[in-house]
Amino acid sequence: MARKLMRISPQLPVLLLLASAAPLLAQKAASVEEVRAAMAAGDYRGAVTQIDKQLFPTSKDTAGRFELLMLKGECRLQLQDRLGAASAFKSAAKIASNPSELAAARANAIIIERSTSGRYTPRFTTGAEPIDILPIDSRKRAMLALEAEMGSQYKSQIDSALRADQLPPIEQVFPRVAEMFFLESFAAAQPSETGKLMQDLGGHAFKLMQDELNKCSSRIDYLNQLANSASDNARGWNSGRLGLTSQQRDEIRAMLPYLNKLRERATEYRGIAAQMGGNENKWDALVADAVDAIADAESLYNDR
Fold first, then answer.
1. Is the distance from CB of 112 to CB of 80 less than 8 angstroms?
2. For 205, how many CA atoms within 13 A lie in the half-sphere containing its CB?
3. Is residue 170 in some structural domain?
4. In terms of domains, do 259 and 184 share one?
5. Which CATH number fits the domain that encloses residue 56?
6. pTM given for the model
7. Is the residue at 6 inside a domain?
8. pLDDT of 156-180, one tens digit each?
9. Which of 3, 195, 254, 302 is the least buried, fewest Cβ under 10 Å from its Cβ?
């Protein structure tokens, strides 16, 4: 019996699995098409019902979950459900797999939240007409109008952040610049202005954190060499270890929370770079440098 079983083609289980999965795959594809058909016919409530049947209560690994959430956001918007639409687009943003998906989801959520009764009205343009955000073309016009408005509104803060010698000014304005980046990325397909601004802010933040880490690492190295120097040169090879003074130990202890904060910030910026297609490697290196500095500081502090 064992020999007969071993003669079965090793490809058979795979073929059987594919054969059994084919109807399910076709059903899922048909379901998305049915949703799109319902939307094209103006049956947005029916489309939402079909979407929810696929999304819930299944796991987050549902195939095509991002697309379904984007379609749900669109349906909710057309149904004039502001909160429901923004919520669906935000959920889509959380599972976006590339910068384009992230920009599409976030840009839609942003313009919906900044609009009233389905219309976005520029606040700083005298006599500006409200822009209907239900049609996608005029929605993109509204996004670009909001992006330009935010650029004017936050210009002074952005300029200050680019000149700052500390992180707080950058962190205060960075979320607004990110929103501008999402709006331009989706509406114009090419974030020429905000893309460069994001790079400049990120590069400035990186340089500041790198400089701070270098200062801390140099100080830790100096104190380490000092602590491990001879306590009595007159005794030559038999001299004892000098060690740290209580003041130097307090300095190391006070430095550790700051180093941990730098590591956390570098990790956060690394995540942002990954989401937006930035240079993850340089942030990985900065995180590693912070981890090394923390380890050296802890070792020095605990070495009595």
1. no
2. 28
3. yes
4. no
5. 1.25.40
6. 0.77
7. no
8. 999 999 999 998 999 899 999 999 9
9. 3
